[in-house]
Amino acid sequence: MVASPSPHNQAIAGRHRVAVIGGGSAGISVAARLRRAGVTDITLVEPSDTHWYQPLWTLVGGGQASLRSTRRSEASVIPDGVRWIRRHALAVDPDARTVTLSGGDELAYEHLVMAPGLQLDWDAVPGLAKAVGHDRVSSNYAPEYAPRTWDLIKRMRSGTAVFTHPATPLKCGGAPQKIAYLAADYWRKQKVLDRIRIILVLPDPTLFKVPEWARTLEQVTARYGIEVRLRSEMTAVDGDRREVVLTDHANGTEETVHYDLLHAVPPQSAPDWVKDSPLADPANPLGFVAADKHTLQHPQYPNVFALGDVANLPTSKTGAAVRKQAPVVAANLLDAMKGKTPTRRYDGYTSCPLVTARDRMLLAEFDYDLKPSPTFPLINTFKERRDMWVFKRYVLPPVYWHGMLTGRL
Ligand SMILES: Cc1cc2nc3c(=O)[nH]c(=O)nc-3n(C[C@H](O)[C@H](O)[C@H](O)COP(=O)(O)OP(=O)(O)OC[C@H]3O[C@@H](n4cnc5c(N)ncnc54)[C@H](O)[C@@H]3O)c2cc1C
C-alpha cells in the first residue's frame, strides 16, 4: 500500500509516540525498523513528494545513469502504518517536546528522530548562487543540475575544467573528486585529454583522509595529468567572465582562473532552523545536532536521537554511514521508550565508493579511527577494481530501495 499525506489537523493532534523529521535515507530507514519492531504510533514529517537516491547523482553527472533512475515517489518508500505529514519542520522545542510545522501547527512528541539532512549554502561563495546552472557552471549536488554536468563534459574539447570541494563537512566527501575522474576518463577516451587542463581544488592536505586510499588516488590524478591544489578552496565565482577565485590557505595566496567548465560543490551546514534550535551542538559552528557518537542519543535530551547528514558525528556523511546508524538508532530508541539505557553502539563506519574511471572504483570503508573496515575482507579494495564499479552501479541501488529503506539491511 502506498502512503498518502495525512489530512490536516486531525493527524497532528495529540502527543505522538515517535516523530521522525525527514523522510530521506535516514528517516525512512529508522521508521521502517521501528515498524518492524512493532512500534505503532510513528509520524513522519517530510515536505517533499520525491525521494532521491543521491549516490547515483555522480553517475548522472558522468553520463552513466539517468536522473529518473534516482527518483521514486516519497509515498512509495514510506513504510505501511507510518503517518505522513507533508510539511516542513520549522522549529523544535525539546523542553516542551514540540515541533513547529509550516502552516503554524505544533506537533507534540514523546520521542524524536532528527533526520532532515543538511543544507547546501550556495550563497556562501560570492557569485556561486547566480552562476550555477548557467555560464558553464554545474554541480552534481542538486538534481536539477546533475544532468547538466554531463552536457558540459560531453561538449568540452579543450580549455580548463575546475572541480571544487568546500572546506565545510559535506555529504559524500569523495563526490567532488569522483566527477573529475569520470570526466578525465571520458576525455581520455575521446582523445582530447591532452588539450584540457584539469584543476582539482581540495581543502585538505592530502587527497583522502585514509593514507592507503590517498596513495592510490595520487596515482589516479597523475595518470590523468590533473593539477591538484591542496589546502585550497573556491572563494568566489564570476559567471559572466567565467572566472573562479581559488584561495590557497597554505600560503595565503589567491589566484583567479578562467574556466570553460566549473563543477562546484557548495559549502554545507545544518538547516538554519536546526542551527537555531537547542538541539544544535554548541561546539559546532555549522549547527549540526549534538549526538553521542556511539549511541546517537542527544546528550541533553535523552528522548531525542540524530543520524544521517544532520548529526554532528566525527565521520564522513554518507548513505553508507546511515545504513549502519539506522539499526543503532532504532534499537536505542526502543530501549529509551522502555526507560532503559541505550547500549547499541555505532563505530563510525562510513564508506566512500571512489569512482576513478568509467569502469573502475575504489571502495573506501573505514571507521572513527580511520581504520579500514572492509565489507569484503578477501578483496583488495586499495586498488581500482571493475567489480566494485559494477557493485556501485548495479548492486547498491536495489540494495538501497529494497533492503535499506525497508529496514531489512
Ligand atoms: C552527489 C552526491 C553523491 C553521493 N554519493 C554517495 C555515495 O556514493 N555513497 C554514499 O553512501 N552516500 C553518498 N551520498 C550521500 C548520501 O546521499 C547522504 O549522506 C544521505 O542521503 C544522507 O541521508 P539523510 O537522510 O541524512 O539526508 P537526505 O537523504 O538528504 O534526506 C533528508 C530529508 O529531509 C527532508 N527535509 C529537509 N528539510 C526538512 C524539514 N524542514 N522538515 C522535514 N523534512 C525536511 C528532505 O526533503 C529529505 O527528504 C552522496 C550525496 C550526493 C549529493
TrEMBL record:
Q: Which cofactor does it need?
A: FAD
Q: Looking at the record's lineage, which domain of life comes first?
A: Bacteria
Q: Which residues form the FAD/NAD(P)-binding domain?
A: 17-316
| An MF annotation (GO) of this entry | quinone binding
Task: Please tell me whether the keyword Cytoplasm is annotated for this protein.
Answer: no
Q: Name one GO biological process term.
A: sulfide oxidation, using sulfide:quinone oxidoreductase
Q: Does the keyword Oxidoreductase apply?
A: yes
List the protein's name. Answer: Pyridine nucleotide-disulfide oxidoreductase
Q: Which organism is it from?
A: Streptomyces colonosanans
Organism phylogeny: Bacteria, Bacillati, Actinomycetota, Actinomycetes, Kitasatosporales
